[in-house]
Specification:
The protein is of the alpha/beta class. Helix content is 33%, strand content 30%. The protein is built from seven helices and eleven strands.
Length: 235
């Protein structure tokens, strides 16, 4: 599903160049649950933006679902995000004055999905992440943080995306609620969803079956089910 070939990312400010990613290469198959982990400044958020078609690499190639998206236009990238990618963020990004159900419906409206099917699909997604139907008409600012994140996950599911990107999804939650959210991602993965998780927390990364560790813009370790199969540690 994802094929990254020697991508780099360089930011320029005047005459100053800052390398954020340098020579990143890996593949992710459909149905994998992958955690991309690293400290602040390691390049993991930049990598997620590229993988999620929110940005493009400075050099190298990125193939998503068989298509080279490295040099697509902004409109073409937006079309891929709308149809094939779901995002879950640390800050939830819900509309506070909209109901739980309305927040889940919004991606379907943006995608011009048939109006008579939107509510049915949104309700099914909300139920699939463990939300009670009684909460559907509550405003999103009237529910708990854990419930907000479940709404955000349901919103990411409604378009039946090829992959879900979760950027520090437990960062604003207490540890117990965070564990429940990670159980939700594990359940979705068992159902066949491809999950790519961005985190700096080792115990959160342990939830995934595969861990890709970044440091200073490079992959230093790639581990699947406890077996290390890539190691590129700089001397």
């Amino acid at each position: 599903m994802i094929n990254v070939k020697n991508i780099t990312k360089v930011y320029k400010s005047g005459n100053v160049e800052t390398k954020v990613l340098e020579g990143i290469s890996f593949n992710i198959e459909a149905g994998e649950f992958v955690a991309i982990i690293g400290p602040s400044g390691s390049g993991k958020s930049t990598l997620m933006h590229i993988l999620g078609c929110l940005d493009t690499p400075t050099s190298g190639q990125y193939f998503f679902d068989g298509k080279d998206v490295s040099r697509l236009s902004d409109d073409e990238l937006a079309d891929i995000r709308k149809k094939k990618i779901g995002f879950v963020f640390q800050s939830f990004n819900l509309l506070p004055r909209a109901t739980v159900l309305r927040n889940a419906i919004l991606p379907l409206a943006y995608a011009n999905f048939p109006r008579d099917k939107r509510e049915e699909i949104a309700k099914a997604a909300l139920l699939s992440v463990g939300l009670d139907e009684k909460s559907f008409n509550h405003l999103s600012n009237q529910i708990s943080g854990g419930e907000m994140q479940r709404v955000a996950i349901a919103r990411a599911l409604v378009n039946n995306p090829a992959v879900i990107f979760a950027d520090e999804p437990t960062g604003n939650l207490d540890s117990k609620t965070g564990e429940l959210i990670m159980e939700t991602f594990k359940k979705l993965n068992k159902e066949g969803r491809t999950i790519i998780l961005i985190t700096h927390e080792k115990y959160i990364a342990e939830t995934a079956r595969r861990k890709i560790s970044l440091k200073d813009g490079e992959i230093v370790e790639d581990v699947i089910n406890g077996s290390k199969f890539v190691k590129q540690i700089k001397e």
